[in-house]
Amino acid sequence: MMASPDKSLEAVLDDAVYMPPPTPAIADDPVEAAIPAASLPAAAVAAASPLPDRAPAAASSSSSDSGSESSTSSSPLRPGDLGGDADAGGACLSSSSDDDEERDLVARLRQQLSIGDEAGVQLAKEALLPSFDLAGVAQLIQSGKAKRIICMCGAGISVSAGIPDFRSPGTGLYSQLQKYNLPYPHAVFELSYFEKKPKPFFRLARELFPGNYLPTPTHYFMKLLHDKGLLLRCFTQNIDSLEKQAGLPAEAIVAAHGNFDSAKCIRCARPHPVEHVRQAVFAGDGGNACYCVKKSCGGLVKPEIVFFGESLPPRFWERAPLDYSEADLLIVMGTSLAVHPFAGLIDYVQPHVPRLLVNREKAGEAVFGGGLLGQQKGFTFGAGNYRDALYLGDCDDGVRQLCELLGWQQELDALVAAGRQQLEAAAQQAEAKS
Ligand code: CNA
């Protein structure tokens, strides 16, 4: 069964690709998954593997904007592994009240039965936090027990900088993509569509290209953790490079979905200066495609942003197994946890590691796939919770409150002020030069 996070992730390196928000999946038989391996026949153990190599069974229904999303997945960390009912439109993971009742029942049963999980840790666990909120996490950090913190971030942390996220109704990019005349929202990040119609992507790139935005207090909070020697790594899905702009060194960041820092031709793989792309997309009224400088090639040049169906960068796969096995606190901020395999990483910290979600809505919640003793993956904020803290609200408010509780408020404010001053001065200098 689940020997270690390292092993689980290594086992799937070969076919790991960036997946669009998942189609609901039918979970593996969770009863088998919950029984210690030693008590199962070999065939049952294989069936209960936490990272099955087969594609998830797609539910019969599909959402209106599913586009290519309904294709089967080679992602190791599938929606069924995480639980939840993320729809093909990738809205939030949610649960019905029936789900809540079942979850409560199962949690009580598991506690009474003291069923062990794969790591041999008793599921009738003692709470790992004094309270499942910011105060509980602040106490943990103050106690000195959290010194290797992983931050996992999504588009929500950059919303206050002025960059829309994907899925927030009304304001998210997916609500605005009609103006690009796309058959479905994800087409803009699909290689096959890009090859045929590159302009929508380049138009969007013009809006997202770094340089127009300043990091948010949430970005500076991660810098503060780093400066205090408490940040093990920042795993970000964001392509805006604001973590770097806030002063986090490259070594501290894993840009899981790439960014605009580099670009290459999709036909001959020749690297191109980012400036080459910038000049193309900012020429005219925007949306100009960018082509390979080698005339005989003529391929499209794409910033190294990971498109749906593409592999995540090697650095993601190198760092994730090592870092997640070492972390002693996970802070997840501003993400719907709808995109795999990134989303499934929340389950790769050790079972004794507390986790905090800071988001406008609940995300990545565990469901049980209908089985009584189901293997639980994802966050548990209700009954059965022993380690998951939740702050519902804006990331900037959440990190400010956490800093206040830790007595770090002034340091955070100073970092924000100094960082922004520096960036504004640099921008003015660049403008004066041009
Ligand atoms: P998403 O699916 O759009 O989810 C964003 C989540 O953040 C939602 O749950 C929101 O409720 C929540 N949220 C929005 N604003 C705030 C706020 N101020 N404070 C707290 N929570 C907030 O985006 P994900 O990151 O989960 O999806 C992954 C995609 C989005 C990645 O591939 C990214 O590359 C892509 N993306 C990145 C950017 C960027 O780089 N800034 C922008 C848009 C999309």
From TrEMBL:
It holds the Pfam family SIR2. Keywords: Metal-binding, NAD, Transferase, Zinc. This is Deacetylase sirtuin-type domain-containing protein. Signal peptide: none annotated. PANTHER family: NAD-DEPENDENT PROTEIN DEACETYLASE SIRTUIN-2, NAD-DEPENDENT PROTEIN DEACYLASE SIRTUIN-5, MITOCHONDRIAL-RELATED. GO terms for cellular component: nucleus. CDD domains: SIRT1. Transmembrane segments: none annotated. InterPro entries: DHS-like_NAD/FAD-binding_dom (IPR029035), NAD-dep_sirtuin_deacylases (IPR050134), Sirtuin (IPR003000), Sirtuin_cat_small_dom_sf (IPR026591), Ssirtuin_cat_dom (IPR026590). Its cofactor is Zn(2+). PROSITE patterns: SIRTUIN (PS50305). Zn(2+) binds at residues 265, 268, 290, 297. The active site is at residue 257.
